[in-house]
Amino acid sequence: MFYKDIVYIQKIAKGGKYVEYVTMDDIYHERISMGQLMEELADLRFILLDRGHVVNVEYVERIEGNVIRLITGERFAVSRIRVSSAKKQIMTYLEKA
Predict the structure, then answer these.
(1) Please, which residues bridge with residue 23 across strands?
(2) What is the pLDDT of residues 26-82, one digit of tens each?
(3) Would the pTM of this model clear 0.85, i.e. be above it?
(4) What sign does the dihedral 80-76-85-71 (CA atoms) show?
């Protein structure tokens, strides 16, 4: 699986150590903490929205207040603490693309 194929990543409730990688075609699971995942990703295209969700900037359609809407129709609320940094990260990524 390539980074460009990941639409979003979410933590699943099996003790907090499992995540789902959601692509346009499938869902993949891995046993990894969100903290470790973010260290390994280290890619500007991925934005941590809250403790359980990461989205790929390439799939962001728009931002409405503190809600990010993806081109797939999913919507994710961004924590109040992360809204400003998420918007800046999206703009930085788009400027470099």
Answers:
(1) 6
(2) 999 999 988 899 899 988 899 999 889 999 999 999 999 999 999 999 999 998 888
(3) yes
(4) negative
Burial of 1 from C-beta contacts in 10 A (0-12 / 13-18 / 19+): exposed
How far apart CA 4 and CA 6 sit, in angstroms, is 6
Q: State how far Cα 19 lies from the chain centre.
A: 12
B/e letters for 28-54, b = 16+ CB within 10 Å, e = fewer, are eeeebebeebeeebeeebbbbbbeebb
* Reported confidence tier of residue 14, pLDDT bands at 50, 70, 90: low
